[in-house]
Amino acid sequence: MKKKITLLDGAVGTTLWEHTNDHDPVWKYNIEKPDVVKQVAREFADVGAEIILTNSFAANHPNVSNQSSYSVEEIVSTSVRLTREALAGTDKRIALAIGPLSAMLEPFGDLSTADCRKIFEEMISAGMQEHPDIIYLMTFMDLEMMKIAVSVAKQYQVPVFSSMTFTEFGATLMGNTVDDIVGELTPMGIDAVGMNCSLGPDKALSIVKEYKAKTSLPVLFKPNAGTPILSSGGKEDKPYSPEVFAADFVPAFEYADAVGGCCGTNATYLKAVKDELDKWEKE
Fold first, then answer.
1. How many CB atoms are located within 10 Å of the residue 207 CB?
2. Which of 139, 140, 171, 180 would you call most buried, defined as having the most Cβ atoms within 10 angstroms of its Cβ?
3. Are 169 and 139 in contact (CB under 8 A)?
């Protein structure tokens, strides 16, 4: 009997865009299109996802205040409430999605550690008002910023997941390696580590293998299916079809403890991964 792998969800943001006719910041949909937000959560749950992300990834103060009249509190707390309503009557777990800030920390940018911490405190505390099961810090490329977010998240009595985004060279854009990430976050009490975004499952395989070799923590794996590209006929296609994405995923099952998808992965992609996972677990 092989190990049990947890199925995460797919990409909340790009899937929401597939359900709408605009490319507004998706966190606005919590207020303006709540039925669509709940529909996407149900779609992922219906194909087998066990942990569902809230629609709160980029709902931080700089973004929300610059692009709307809403407050961070109403956007983020509503994201958790909508996810809970969508999953009512199931045993699915809710993960509060927290993404990085677009500004860079000093000395590379003008964002101070204190201001960074304040932004994450506002965002995470807003979500925790609705009592999600997990805090999922994802798509960070700067380990120093991740450490600030982890220190805020660990104040709450729920598991905290940490997922960084990597280049094909095996490090983040800020030069952080798997060694750096494991070495810095393990003493902070992180509950799971891994990668998401940027790369497809085949190109990200070496990263998940390295995580598995260097930590006993659960390893998260949420690669991309890619953003749409124009084909010669003018039709939008994704770099990976659901079938190719799922087939490329299979080698990662040996190393990952929780798997799902990032940009481009809707419920069809996740179902294809689930089918391959079911076959793998029975072999």
1. 26
2. 140
3. no
Give the DSSP letter of residue 187: G
CA atoms within 13 A on the CB side of 106: 8
Question: Smallest Cα–Cα separation from 276: which of 95, 48, 15?
Answer: 48
For the stretch 224-268, pLDDT in tens is 996 555 455 555 567 789 999 999 999 999 999 999 999 999 999
Strands (E) across the chain are located at: 6-7, 51-53, 93-98, 134-140, 160-164, 192-196, 219-222, 229-230, 236-237, 258-259
For residues 37 and 59, is the Cβ–Cβ distance under 8 A?
no
1-15 residue pLDDT tens = 678 999 999 999 999
Sole residue written with tokens 């996972």: 277
Between CA 31 and CA 34, with CA 33 as vertex, the angle to 5 degrees is: 70
Strand partners, 137: 98, 162
Alpha carbon distance 216, 80 (integer Å): 30
pLDDT above 90: percentage of residues in the chain: 91
Sheet of 192-196, strands arranged across: 6-7, 258-259, 219-222, 192-196, 160-164, 134-140, 93-98, 51-53
User: Structure tokens of 89?
Assistant: 């009557």
